[in-house]
Each structure stands twice: as structure tokens, then as C-alpha cells.
Amino acid sequence: MFECIPNISEGRDASTIDAVAGAIRGTAGVQLLNIHSDPDHNRSVFTYISDDADAILEATLRLFEVAVARIDLRIHHGAHPRVGAVDVVPFVPLEHTTMDECVALATRAGRAIAERFGIPIYLYEHAATAEHRRELPAIRSGGFEQFGQKIRDERWQPDFGPASVHESAGVSVVGARVPLIAFNMQLGTDRMEVAQACARAVRGISGGLKYVRALPIALASRGLVQVSMNLLDFRRTPIQRAFAVVREEAERHGVLSARLDINQL
Amino acid sequence: MFECIPNISEGRDASTIDAVAGAIRGTAGVQLLNIHSDPDHNRSVFTYISDDADAILEATLRLFEVAVARIDLRIHHGAHPRVGAVDVVPFVPLEHTTMDECVALATRAGRAIAERFGIPIYLYEHAATAEHRRELPAIRSGGFEQFGQKIRDERWQPDFGPASVHESAGVSVVGARVPLIAFNMQLGTDRMEVAQACARAVRGISGGLKYVRALPIALASRGLVQVSMNLLDFRRTPIQRAFAVVREEAERHGVLSARLDINQL
Q1: How far is B153 from chain A (nearest CA, A)?
Q2: Out of A16, A76, B129, B223, which residue is the most buried by the measure of CB atoms under 10 Å away?
Q3: Of A237, A230, A229, nearest in space to A209 by CA
Q4: Which of B36 and B259 is assigned the larger pLDDT?
Q5: What is the rounded distance in angstroms from the CA atom of residue A118 to the CA atom of residue A128?
Q6: Is the distance from CB of A193 to CB of A109 less than 8 angstroms?
Q7: What value does the mean pLDDT take over residues A134-146?
Q8: Count of CB atoms within 10 A of residue B55's CB?
Q9: Which of B173, B135, B176, B175 lies closest to B151, judged by CA?
Q10: DSSP labels for B197-242?
Q11: Do B8 and B41 meet the contact criterion of CB atoms below 8 Å apart?
Q12: Cα A124–A129–A133 angle (5° rounding)?
């Protein structure tokens, strides 16, 4: 059993979200299990599964076909960092499927996407081809707007596809990874410096919890800031521990209310 | 392959959400795919799958064990209607699994939950035992607070368990259904009458789109109202059509912004 959880750069236009959902549902042997859209992030996450690698690859190509035709990053604005119309495409092994099988599938998918759509592809996590581009934040740093520069760097040649950014669809990051929890906390303030302090407090790389990644994000339509987190190993770092660290830091800044918003394993 | 998507009446306390997630994850043969929590609804939705009916039943019993120990409806407040600590437990057939197999599983689960926890169980949708209690809104009407009266009515005897409401855990609704999309729209106003008008406009029962159920909900922490919808047949009524009807009605009331929030198939 394979799970695929692509994130596309559209969280506001119902007709595009619907068209992508239809493309996935229309693929025989694939089950669409979840859609999550966030209008402030301007981003949607689709979750689908199949026990057939060919079928889940086909659904993913159909998703690209719709998303690339409808999303133009040159006019896309959202609070979440992104480099592609289809930003990131993780494959996750479920049940008896192995990580090696997922790596093989992600590699096949990356090659097929590059060939069919002319989009530069970066393989990440377990599928990565170099250590410096294993982690998503490293690949995504600079965003779509600066990728034209970044792609000229020898260290940032794509794994597949042209060495130039697709005009409207950018680049895509495709890979294989373990399940993770995407976990957001809204803070009862609009002060970005509080979200930044909380993100620093909780994330492993700056001294916080080892298996946590965190980004501060402004939610303009809600007049709030958010700490957007990934829990990379929810057995070792449970939700409540990350929650407690963020809440403690928020309280230190005089922010008392924190709202929980958990999504997408 | 079976999918189970229980909704529990806790969307704020990270330690309870985490404990429930741990109980599901700790069950061999079951994959937890998604958690969605909403603090205003004060409700969380867990999505897990298994190809083993015994395993998914075991995970569901473990979920009840944690939720019943930690959630007390007498002190629970939330914007979403509910009758139980574990409010509703739908089983959905995926891949080659049939609806009949799901009905059998839901019936087994209902009996086991009633026996182990002493909670009255109502079977719904494809598992329902009478036409007047096929649909969730009919079973849930009145909520936990009025269920002590309702359960004395002959037409509302539970399918399993005692004919009296569990003191802290209420009653639970267990059944088998097709996949659906839970789809919420936030309106740029705090006027409940606008949400009520939009819900009336879009839902099938009051003259709107046939496969849409809709509820107006106040989101206190966001200072907004919401139309919370279920799309019962997303092939015949796509997201964008429901979105357009709600937006049109909201605009008629002078409310221009509508935010999309799609979750949980």
C-alpha cells in the first residue's frame, strides 16, 4: 500500500481544488481519502492511497496535469513557502510496503513528471541523491521567486528535467518519507515576533525538540500568527509536548490563548 | 480495506488528542492517516484504515477506552452538535471491500462498544435498523443535553446497550456509509442569520442542492460564522457548486468574503 500526499499551491479557488480531486478520483485503483485546503496558506493537501504503484503514479500525473494548467506561481500569493504549482509530492509506505519500494516509486514519478511537463524535479528525504538536498526546507529556501538564481548553482541542478525553472509551475519536490504530523498552532496575537520566538523555541535545529520543524506564518485573513510544525517522529515527540513548548513560550510573551489545528499525517 | 473516521468531542486538549492517536497507532495492522482538530467545534476527527476487520475494530475499542476515560460531556462545550464523547463512528468500504462487509463490521463494533463501555449505540446510514433513524441529523437532534428524554421514546431505543444515556459519554452513533466530503465555509461576518440563510440556500432538504447537508455554526474564537457542509455525493454535487451557492447567498446579504476549509472525505 502506497500513500501519496501532494501539496498544491491553491487553497482558495474551489473549482481548481475540485478539478484536482476529480482527477485523482477518476483514476481506477486509487482512493482519495482527504482534502485539506487553507486559504491563508493558499495551499491544498490531497491524501490518496493505492496498492498499485502504477495507479498511484497515474493519479499523480493527472494531478499535475490539472494543477499545472490552472496554477500560475507568478500571480500566486500565500503565507506558506512554496517553489512549485505542485510544491511537494511525498510518497509514504503503508502496511507491508517498504521504504525502498517508495523510493523507487518516487524516482519513477519524478522522471515521468519531468518528461511530461518539463518541470525540474528535486528528489528529497529517502529518495534524495545528495545529503545537502535531503531536507525539504533546504530545497525550498528562497522560494519560487529566487529559484531562477538557485538553479544555476551546480549544487542545485535538478535530478530530472530542465535546468531552468518552469515559467508558471516552478519546480517540484518529489520523494519518499515516513508518516509525519502537520500540526499548526494559532496564537492569540498578530505579532510575528511571538510566532518567530515560538518556532525557535520548539524546533530541533535551534535547540528545541529534536523531531520538530517549525515555521512562523502570518494568517492575514484571521488577524493572527501561527506556528506551523511538522512532527517527524510522533512516537518520540508527541503532539502534546510540542504544544506545551509553544504555549509556554507564547505565555512568556504575554499571549495566553493558543489554538490547536492538527492535520495530515 | 476498511476506513474508520470517528469524531470525538475534544478539539482543544492536546494530551487527549495525542492519547487517542497513540491508542490507534498502537494497534497492529492499523494505519492512522489523518487527525483533524477544530477548537471552536471542540471536536477531532481521526482517519485510519486496515484490511483486517478485527484490527480496525480493536483500534476503535481502544479509541473509546481513551476517549470515554477523558471526555465528560457534562462539562464539554463546542459549536458543533454532539451526543457522545465519541460522537459518530462511520466505517467506509475502500477498494474491493463491500458496503455489506462494512455494515457487518459496524454492527459488530456497535455491539462490542455497548457491551464493554455501557454506552447506548445507534446504528446509522447503511447499518440503520429503521428508516427514521437512518440519517445522522435525526439521531443527533436535541444533542446530549436532551437525550435523556429522547431515549425514553420507543422510537429511540438504542440498537445496543442500556436504554439510558451514559452519564459522561452520552450515546454513540455507529454505522457504514459511502465516502463524503466535510466542507466548511467561513463567512466574513459574525451574523448567525447570514449563516442560517446560506445553510438553507445550499442544503437539499430546504430546496438547495440534493446531496448537501448544511449547518450554521458560530466560530467564537474567530469572530466569524461558518456553514458546515457534508457533500454526500461529490460526483453529482462537486465542491465548487456548493461553494458558489453559499457565496451567492452570502453576497445577497452584503457579505463579500468567504473562506474555504475542506476536510475529511
Answers
A1: 37
A2: A16
A3: A237
A4: B36
A5: 20
A6: no
A7: 95
A8: 18
A9: B173
A10: HHHHHHBGGGTSBTTEEEEEEEEGGGTEEEEEEEES-TTTS-HHHH
A11: no
A12: 50
Cell of B134: 437512518
Band (B210; pLDDT cuts 50, 70, 90): very high
- Please tell me which residue in B41, B80, B126, B166 is annotated as part of the active site: B80
Residue the block writes with cell 470517528: B6
Say which residue the cell 535531503 belongs to.
Answer: A134
Q: In whole angstroms, how large is the CA radius of gyration of chain B?
A: 18
The x, y and z cell numbers of residue B6, run together, are 470517528
Q: Which pLDDT tens digit goes with each residue over B158-185?
A: 999 999 999 999 999 999 998 888 888 8
pLDDT in tens, A250-260: 999 999 777 77
Contact B80, B89 (CB under 8 A): no
The per-residue b/e assignment along A45-54, b for 16 or more CB within 10 angstroms, e otherwise, is bbbbbbbbbe
Closest-CA distance, A156 to chain B, in angstroms, reads 32
pLDDT at A216 over 90: yes
Q: Would you say the C-alpha torsion A42, B227, B76, B143 has a positive or negative sign?
A: negative
CB contact under 8 A, A262 and B37: yes
Mutation target for B interface from A13, A38, A95, A190: give the one with most B CBs within 10 A.
A95
The three three-digit cell numbers of residue B13, written as one number: 486538549
Q: Return all residues near A61 (Cβ < 8 A) that are at least 6 apart.
A: A109, A112, A113, A116
ipTM confidence score? 0.77
Q: Do the Cβ atoms of A233 and A263 come closer than 8 Å?
A: no
d(CA B240, CA B155): 38
